[in-house]
Amino acid sequence: MKTIKNYPKSFSHVGITVPDIKAAVKFYSEVMGWYIIMEPSIVKKEKDSAIGQMCIDVFGEDWTTFEIAHLATSDGIGIELFSFPNGIKEAPEFNPFNTGLFHFCIQDPNIEALVEKIVSYGGKQRMPIRAYYPEEKPFKMCYVEDPFGIVFEVYTHSYELTYSSGAYSK
């Protein structure tokens, strides 16, 4: 008899399409402190390389070039930035009620300073900084936008600590 063991898969990276790759690399490296592991470069549609063929498989035939850059967070999660010459250069309307990716979340214990820095770089604070469990845990959160209209969330503590019943309980 074969035993099937389930285990939690790790997160590898997130891909984000931005209107200006250089501005996005500047924002995410300077504001978030993410490491630039590959400077912006151009990918051309061609079938003679593995990357070219893979991009045709993913994006289809209706493109000729795009720009790509890779960054990494302090815990090794990749941030893959794309910028296509064709396409809409504005973020889609914020609508968390529709199926699809709603947001991603980053973590910084100094949430006030990070939110202030996001705004100073052209981003937006979407709500006041709020305490999750004000009487039980010192955890805060806030939804923000980058300068390109991409919504994300900031936590002060890890996801596991924020939602586990025993963390910092009285």
Short précis:
Keywords: Metal-binding. With 170 residues, the chain is an alpha+beta fold. The protein has helices at 21-30, 50-59, 111-120, 159-163; strands at 13-17, 35-44, 65-72, 78-83, 104-107, 124-125, 130-131, 140-145, 151-155.
Provide an overview of this structure.
The strands form two sheets. Strands 5, 6, 7, 8 and 9 form a five-stranded mixed sheet that branches. The chain has a four-stranded mixed sheet with strand order 1-4-3-2, with helices on one face. It has 170 residues and is α+β, with helices and mostly antiparallel strands. It has four helices and nine strands, in the order βαβαβββαββββα. The termini are far apart.
N-C termini distance: 46 Å
Low-confidence stretches: none
Relative helix content: 10-25%
| Main β sheet profile | 5 strands, mixed
Q: What is the tally of helical segments?
A: 4
Instruction: Return the average pLDDT rounded to an integer.
Output: 92
Question: Secondary structure elements and their pairing?
Answer:
Blueprint: E1 13-17, H1 21-30, E2 35-44, H2 50-59, E3 65-72, E4 78-83, E5 104-107, H3 111-120, E6 124-125, E7 130-131, E8 140-145, E9 151-155, H4 159-163
Parallel strand pairs: 1-4, 5-9
Antiparallel strand pairs: 2-3, 3-4, 6-8, 7-8, 8-9
List the keywords.
4-stranded mixed β-sheet, metal-binding, 5-stranded mixed β-sheet, single chain, Glyas_Bleomycin-R_OHBP_Dase, 9 strands, 4 helices, Glyas_Fos-R_dOase_dom, 170 residues
